[in-house]
C-alpha cells in the first residue's frame, strides 16, 4: 500500500516535458526571427526603390533602437548613457564598422534583384 503525501505545493512538471517545451519555444523563436529577417529584407528592398539607401539604413537603425528601448523598459533594465567609457569606445568602433562594411552591403542589397539576395547575404 502506497501513501500519498501532499505538501500543498503544485506538482512539478515532468523534466522531459519541460525540455520539450523549451525546445518548442526555441524553434518558434527561430521561426519568428526568420520571418522578421525575411520581411525586413523584402520591405527594405521595396523601400530602396522609392527612397535613398541612406534613408532606408537610417530607418532600419531607428527601428532597432526603438524596439530595444521598448524591450529594455518593459523588462525593467536600468539604461546607462554616460558612465562607462567602454560603451562609448564600442559604439564608435561599431559606427566605423557600419560605415566601412555594412553601409556598402545595404546599398548593394537595395540595388540588386531580389532573387540574388540569398547569394549576397550568404557571402557577407
Radius of gyration, rounded? 23 Å
Q: How many strand segments?
A: 0
> How many helical stretches?
4
Shape: extended
What structural category arises from helix and sheet content? mainly alpha
Order of helices and strands: HHHH
Average residue pLDDT? 75
Helix content: over 70%
Beta-strand residue fraction = under 5%
Largest sheet: none
Number of folding domains? 1
Low confidence ranges: none
Folded structure, characterized:
The protein is mainly α. The chain has one domain. 75% of the residues lie in helices and 0% in strands. It is extended and about 55 Å long. The model has no long low-confidence stretch (mean pLDDT 75).
Task: Write out key terms for the chains shown.
124 residues, mainly alpha, extended
Summarize the structure.
By secondary structure, the chain is mainly α.
Give me the secondary-structure topology:
Layout: H1 15-50, H2 53-75, H3 85-111, H4 117-123
Amino acid at each position: 500500500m502506497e501513501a500519498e503525501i501532499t505538501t500543498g505545493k503544485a506538482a512539478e512538471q515532468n523534466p522531459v516535458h519541460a525540455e520539450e517545451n523549451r525546445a518548442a519555444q526555441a524553434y518558434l523563436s527561430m521561426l519568428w526571427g526568420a520571418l522578421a529577417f525575411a520581411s525586413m529584407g523584402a520591405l527594405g528592398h521595396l523601400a530602396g526603390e522609392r527612397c535613398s539607401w541612406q534613408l532606408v539604413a537610417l530607418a532600419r537603425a531607428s527601428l532597432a533602437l526603438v524596439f530595444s528601448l521598448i524591450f529594455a523598459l518593459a523588462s525593467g533594465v536600468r539604461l546607462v548613457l554616460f558612465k562607462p567609457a567602454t560603451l562609448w569606445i564600442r559604439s564608435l568602433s561599431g559606427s566605423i564598422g557600419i560605415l566601412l562594411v555594412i553601409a556598402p552591403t545595404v546599398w548593394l542589397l537595395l540595388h540588386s534583384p531580389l532573387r540574388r539576395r540569398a547569394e549576397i547575404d550568404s557571402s557577407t
